[in-house]
From TrEMBL:
<dbReference type="InterPro" id="IPR000866">
    <property type="entry name" value="AhpC/TSA"/>
</dbReference>
<dbReference type="GO" id="GO:0016209">
    <property type="term" value="F:antioxidant activity"/>
</dbReference>
<dbReference type="InterPro" id="IPR013766">
    <property type="entry name" value="Thioredoxin_domain"/>
</dbReference>
<dbReference type="Pfam" id="PF00578">
    <property type="entry name" value="AhpC-TSA"/>
</dbReference>
<protein>
    <submittedName>
        <fullName>Peroxiredoxin</fullName>
    </submittedName>
</protein>
<dbReference type="InterPro" id="IPR036249">
    <property type="entry name" value="Thioredoxin-like_sf"/>
</dbReference>
<dbReference type="GO" id="GO:0016491">
    <property type="term" value="F:oxidoreductase activity"/>
</dbReference>
Length: 226
């Protein structure tokens, strides 16, 4: 899979992929999904509480999407053994695929942020080239889950503590290697063509951890193929 330098747009073909499944046997590929529309979300690893919550939201949407003929797929930046252990205790109808290297994220053009070195004269361009000051100044409160907006890393710590979630070594390694990976959602039609795309924090770091609402996803699904 070649890296896509920008997110795929409606009208463009989805790239081929084959990933290990966390809640099914074997692997799932684009060829396996072809012939029916599907929603595919690309997430950070299990260390991200917002991503875990979005997978739960997709599980809640699964019946409505399935009744519309749309499959639901989540690609998680987590090793398959770790994902299988976690979701064994939290079963979900969403098809869970594992990409610990984020290769499929990149093939769909989901950005990964990079921080400029301190003192760099290079012009910041969010999210591809950001300053640490930009990130540290960000304040988020997706869906009003906090009494007041928090810095993103602080928000992660608060929610992980609230969930009773403790990072294991596999989570820490993914966080160290892919902590700046952004999240993307795509609706793909039965022929493999992207019909809708949504990328996290397109307008700046204050949009981090804000993902499409259920109503937005359902509206996009209703319009798929029109």
């Amino acid at each position: 899979m070649a890296d896509q330098i920008r997110p795929l747009q409606p009208g463009e073909p989805a790239p081929s992929f084959a990933l290990a499944a966390a809640n099914l046997e074997g692997t799932i590929s684009l060829a396996d999904l072809r012939g029916r529309p599907f929603l595919i979300g690309f997430f950070r690893g299990l260390h991200c509480p917002f991503c875990r919550r979005q997978v739960e939201q997709l599980a809640g949407l699964h019946p409505a999407l399935r009744s519309a003929g749309i499959e639901t797929v989540a690609v998680i930046n987590t090793p398959v053994d770790r994902a299988r252990l976690y979701f064994r205790h939290r079963p979900t109808p969403v098809t869970l695929l594992c990409d610990p290297d984020c290769r499929t994220h990149r093939a769909f053009g989901v950005p990964r942020g990079e921080f400029l070195p301190e003192g760099s004269s290079e012009r910041p361009e969010w999210p591809h080239r950001a300053t640490m000051a930009q990130f540290e100044a960000a304040r988020i409160n997706p869906a009003g889950v906090f009494p007041e907006p928090l810095q993103p890393m602080e928000a992660n710590v608060v929610l992980n503590a609230s969930d009773g979630f403790e990072l294991v070594e596999a989570d820490k390694a993914i966080l160290a290697d892919h902590g700046t990976q952004l999240v993307g959602h795509f609706l793909v039609d039965a022929t493999g063509i992207v019909g809708w795309a949504q990328i996290e924090a397109r307008d700046g770091p204050n949009g981090l951890c804000t993902f499409p609402a259920a109503a937005q996803i359902l509206a996009a699904a209703k319009n798929l193929g029109r």
